[in-house]
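Lab notebook, bench 4. The sequencing result for the construct came back, and we need a structural model before the next group meeting so we can plan mutations. Quick request posted to the team channel:

Model the 3D structure of this chain.
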Amino acid sequence: MSNIIIFGATSAIARACTRDWIAAGHNLFLVGRNADKLEIMRTDLLARSTQGQVVEIATADLNDFSTHEPLYAKAAEVLGMPDTVLVAHGSLPDQKACEASVDLTMCEIRTNALSVISLATLAANLFEPRREGTIAVIGSVAGDRGRQSNYVYGAAKGMVDIFLQGLRNRLAKASITVLTIKPGFVDTPMTAHIPTKGALWATPNDIGQGIIHAVNHKRDVVYLPWFWRIIMLIIRFIPEAIFKRLSL
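Done. Here's the predicted structure in token form:
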């Protein structure tokens, strides 16, 4: 049994992870913005749990960085010291709206990059003295290369990717796992506005199972589903002179 904190717990992918983790006997501390959704999740997970398991919830706006340290303290109070942190918090920006508004662009960067970096930094400082723990962060294949269709989102995810590379390098000597999770297209409420979904799309359950496997095997980087590693390798190696002319 381990203690797991999930930030952005009401997201579809995080919910899929919670069901597997509760079935495996772990304790959960769930953080999200919507108190009603969190309470529904808690009730469902407790119904799936065995005697002695703990599921606690906390409501927070994770764009308010001042809430981050108290959330870690609360989790330690109700669960004991955490073993795993999953950061599933984020948003999918409207690229065109961001192009028209510097303020909106900065807001999306704060949500998808800076708040994530804050949470990961605090997790690192919590785990490093203990020389154990796992920090798992949901990024995106969009962070591998900037594309006109979503470069604000991609820039934020790219920032997180580089940050986690450095954090992984720092924490390797302390035997702490830093996992970067890079999903491709996932059929979630966040992508419900996209009308056509094809063979490249995955379900939240598919991604959740991939995350659990990667955490259990102490992976560094995982593309989900696996074929996105090949797709993004090809995209990264397209020469810029060609790439800038593509409509992607």
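The mean pLDDT is 95.
Will bring this to the meeting.
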